[in-house]
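User: For my dataset I need records formatted as: sequence, then structure tokens, nothing else. Please produce one.
Assistant:
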Amino acid sequence: MFLSKPTVISVLSGLIWGTVAYGLLSNESAWGRVSDFSWLSFILSPVVGVLVYYCSYWIFYQRLWLRIFWSILMLYFSSGILALFLGIADFFHPLRSESETWFSLTEVPLSFWWGITFTPFLWTLFLFAFGNQELIRYLVKKSTV
């Protein structure tokens, strides 16, 4: 099976992002039951990486300001997808009460987006997201020439 170099890099990039997510989510005192499923972020991150790659393919030929804006949007999109997966896993947790259904499906993605937006430490993720996008853009342009 032939995989293009940008797709392979997207999978590896997803694994790196999943490792970062696993490191951030494994703190049980901060995330509670969600930390029980932090390993899921590592497993599903390659899928999210490839999904973001195929959603972002058109942006590689656009202007710089649009690529910066798109990398920010894709950071929110990918973290939201990952948070939704973790929320669904938390939804099936045996210790969840009926009153926590809303938490499982909405508050996990909202807490991810809150952390990315308002935590200065996590603002570096925007730079990494843009750098990641530019690396894949370079590989796509190099492979199409």
